[in-house]
Amino acid sequence: MAADLAVREQAGTKQRAAGRPRRTGALTPYLYVLPYFAVFATFVLAPAVYGLWISLHDWDYLLPGKPFVGLDNYQALFDSSSAVFDFFWESMSATGIFTVLSVPLLLAVPLLIALMLNRSFPGRTFFRAVYFAPYVLGVAVIGVLWRFLLDPNLGLVNAILPGSAPWTTALPWAWISLVGVTVWWTLGFNAVIYLAGLQDIPRELYEAARIDGGGKWAEFRHVTLPGLRPVLLFVVVNTILLSANMFGQSYLITQGAPGTETRTAIMYIAQVGLRDYKMGSAAAMSYLLTVCLLIISAFVFRLFREKDA
Amino acid sequence: MNLQFSRRGLLALGAGAGGAVLLGACGDSGPNEKVTGGGQNAAPAPTEYTGPNVALAFWNGFTGGDGPFMKKLVDQFNTEHPTIKVSMNTYQWADYYQKTPAAVATGNGPDVGIMHVDHVATNAARGVILPLEDLSKALNFKAEDFSPPVWNAGVYNNTRYAIPLDVHPLGFFYNKTVMAKGGLDPEKPPTNNEEYLAALEQMKSKGIQGDWVTPFEFTGSMQFQSLLWQFGGQLFDDQASKALFAEDPGVQALTWMTDHVKNGWSPKNVAQDADIVALRNGKNAFNWNGIWTINTLKEDKNLEWGVAPLPQIGTQKAAWAGSHQFVQFKQKAKDDNKLTAGKVFINWISQHSIEWAKGGQVPARAEIRNSAEFKALPEQSAIGSQIDDLHFLPPKPGIADAMATVVTSINEAVLGRKEPAKALADGAAKANQILEQNAKKYGG
């Protein structure tokens, strides 16, 4: 052991000696990272670790006693007789349903729009602005707006459509509304990212494809899609995370109704932590959600890496 | 519309909140008899302030049409009290209830504020607000000077923490034009169950769905609570250790509401606020809504409407009400001058609450409620006549958490996803678990 250490020490000294002329250079990258790391550590890392600590307690920041309860808060999430079990998993499944329904649409629709907006035609800039416009609105604005439009008895949507549907108060209509509104609201963001990606694809590749006799579809499959891959990874992961964090739309448009079926995980966590002041339990829920999202993200990264290989 | 929304937002704060009560709680002996420690706030009796100049921060959530009325009162107070400078800050109620505990914890809390009655116990237990025993003793306030239910609701663990400013009960609003179209006498709104159901049938025969029932907290859960008390029920026992809302009176109350949909007196799937919007649009005749609706309806110059006390559907009179109450916040360092000035302020506003009533409230103080000036406000005094029939939740910390399950039960039943008895039983089972958690957390 000691010998081992000594060897390493020596090696270190040698390295340092060899690197002497570039000593300042070795530190430079860390100095560049430092400002960001300071912010990251203060506002992400430290709170995350603190949150882990909170999740091991019955935590109300204003009560003098914050009893340590070990893993009880986590156990309760897996104990079907606990007060939080049903509500928590119902909210997780609501988040799951929303994510599964919205992500494919949020990947495909913006891509179609980006492809169209990438062609040159008169008024292109205008249309680019039009599709991006909803994204600049706050969730409060679009939430209240659509709650009025989708009102089952008084709303404009039911007045225009031949039939009438309970858009905000029954399933599956409530999910259709929430997903539809979200796609309309946020497609502009993904479309802009795609558009940037499309413009990075070298023109020569398209020319080459055409010379080789490839049609539109072949161009899309063999030039556009592979060219978008780096952008696609970002869009997929980002869209999944954003969908899994959905809060405002449900909060404002359906209020979690019918019952609590459209109450998302974040909505429930916020209620438990910030309204019922059971922050230990809420922290445990957040960590479980985080773990789920980490697994999904890791899976997506792998998927893309395999494709690359 | 804006007004309506903000007024609703005003109450919406503790989603599960709703104000409700315990029949039994009314029977408690007055809180003045047993006084426990005044703690930090055991300052001398304050009716007048003679100290050096002080500045007070006064926070509230009056973001709606009520804000300007309070601002005017504060300005008048500042003019009459040259040594006290009160500055008012307004937040959305939902933000307010998250902001104030955090501000107090970091030593930046306001001096004086307003809280809804069902938040008083929670904030007292969490050490956010200070006892006000000395103020009520100095001014010799008694339950009868206000109204026993609302006065007693400000007491937690035998100690007074809040002085009532107002009550805001549910009232029975009706659109006279729609009633006339439905073949009813618009000057004679129904007052009991028999007349009520007859009126609904009569309107139905003319093709009018005359009483839209909302599945949402505003104001469906308030209607449910009123009905439950009318049928002689309780939401929780006095100790808030057990949910009682799934018992017979609760089932009767909720069935009465779901029958509206079943019998075609109300459309299905009424969305948030659609009930009152439909009344304003001339599609709906009846609506059980909060007193804050008065000023909203007054904005519609062409609307022919009236408001009455809630009809008696069950075996006794009862109505839901909320109440704004004055509180003083804990500070890092005690400042007797500020505490005294704060109490002078609370007392002064309370004495001048007739101006506040004009903003669409019923003053909590009996002398003001009984004044000719208040009686001259026809809508407010009609709703205010229910003062002795009002109920509030048992003043236990975390009670609003359990109320959230009531809101869900009503939603499920009115939307037709569960039978009333089943919806309430499921909700009560959850509520019992939450009450047990809270008893452990706050120490019984």
Automatic annotation (TrEMBL), chain A:
Q: How does it sit in the membrane?
A: Multi-pass membrane protein
Range of residues in the leader sequence = none
Organism (species): Paractinoplanes deccanensis
> What InterPro entries does its record include?
ABC_transporter_permease (IPR051393), MetI-like (IPR000515), MetI-like_sf (IPR035906)
Q: Where in the cell is it found?
A: Cell membrane
Matching SUPFAM superfamilies: MetI-like
Q: What is this protein called?
A: Sugar ABC transporter permease
Task: Give the UniProt family note.
Answer: Belongs to the binding-protein-dependent transport system permease family.
Query: Which Gene3D superfamilies does UniProt cross-reference here?
Result: MetI-like
Q: Where is this region: Disordered?
A: 1-20
Would the keyword Transport be found if you checked this record's keyword annotation? yes
Keywords from the named record: Cell membrane, Membrane, Transmembrane, Transmembrane helix, Transport
Residue ranges constituting the ABC transmembrane type-1 domain according to the UniProt record: 92-300
> From what superkingdom does this record's organism come?
Bacteria
Please give the start and end residues of each transmembrane region: 30-53, 96-117, 129-150, 170-196, 231-253, 284-304
From TrEMBL, chain B:
Keyword Transport on this protein? yes
Cite the entry's keywords alphabetically. Sugar transport, Transport
On whether Transport is a keyword of this UniProt record, the answer is: yes
Q: Which residues cross the membrane?
A: none
Among Pfam families, the record links this protein to: SBP_bac_8
Q: What PANTHER family does this protein's entry cite?
A: ARABINOSE-BINDING PROTEIN-RELATED, BLR3389 PROTEIN
What is the protein's name according to its record? Answer: Sugar transporter
Organism expressing this protein natively: Paractinoplanes deccanensis
